[in-house]
Amino acid sequence: KAGVTQTPRYLIKTRGQQVTLSCSPISGHRSVSWYQQTPGQGLQFLFEYFSETQRNKGNFPGRFSGRQFSNSRSEMNVSTLELGDSALYLCASSLTYPNTEAFFGQGTRLTVV
Amino acid sequence: DAKTTQPPSMDCAEGRAANLPCNHSTISGNEYVYWYRQIHSQGPQYIIHGLKNNETNEMASLIITEDRKSSTLILPHATLRDTAVYYCIVVFTGANSKLTFGKGITLSVRP
Q1: For chain A, which has fewer Cβ within 10 Å, the N-terminal or C-terminal residue?
Q2: Pick from B87, B95, B99: which is nearest to A45 by CB?
Q3: Tell me, what DSSP letter sits at residue B110?
């Protein structure tokens, strides 16, 4: 079966803009988590959604938000982009909550210029 | 979540067993040990997890010491494709739990 699909794979945005990233989980998976990966900070947890509800949130500013739809697909949004938001954004899905035995997508590489 | 300590890097010869150590001396009784790996330019991949018993699957074996303060991930016959960053994570799998990735250990498999 298909893995976790993230779109787009690559994105270039300008400071101050906003961006929406999309994640389609593995069929049947109901939990989706998002992570940010940078060379300096490594992999950091952003948030987790299960049954359309945010269940857990990492230590990121309110500019980072997300949502989950009834089909378990998820989007994350970053508003007022800063240069430091340049990163690989990874989505992971799992059958249930919490998302500890997770299947990760290839990620979206966001570059803010 | 309890913190883990891993050496920054190690290498092994192709075809030999790779034994990746992890210290988690402050682990609580209800916290599991998870291992993930990340091959360059890919998302992390779940490998295995355990509570206190040794575990084995098609990818690897996980050996947890009796006092649970350390563990070893064993790749029985390492291949070049196993070159990756390996993360040892300790997590309580209850409400509000999450995977907290450290720096991991970079395994280089040499021909």
Answers
A1: N
A2: B99
A3: E
C-alpha span between B104 and A6 (Å, rounded): 24
Is B101 near chain A, with CB under 8 Å?
yes
Tens-digit pLDDT string for chain B (111 aa):
558 999 999 999 999 999 999 999 999 988 999 999 999 989 999 999 999 989 999 999 999 999 999 999 999 999 999 999 999 999 987 888 889 999 999 999 999
Class of residue A17 by CB neighbours under 10 A (exposed 0-12, middle 13-18, buried 19+): exposed
The pairing of beta strand B45-50 with beta strand B31-38: antiparallel
**Residues in chain B, total:** 111
- The phi and psi torsions of A84 (rounded to 5 degrees) equal -70, -5
Does B92 touch chain A if contact means CB atoms closer than 8 Å? no
Q: What ranges in B1-91 are assigned the alpha helix state H?
A: none
Q: Choosing among A43, A45, A54, A59, which should be mutated to test the B contact, i.e. which has the most B CBs within 10 A?
A: A43
CB atoms within 10 A of CB B52: 14
Residue in A with minimal Cα distance to B96: A56
Residue A52, CA atoms < 13 Å, CB-side half-sphere: 3
What contacts A72, CB < 8 A, 6 or more positions away? Answer: A25, A29, A30, A32, A93
Select from B40, B38, B33 the least CA-distant residue to B89: B33
- Phi, psi angles (nearest 5°) of residue A85: -85, -5
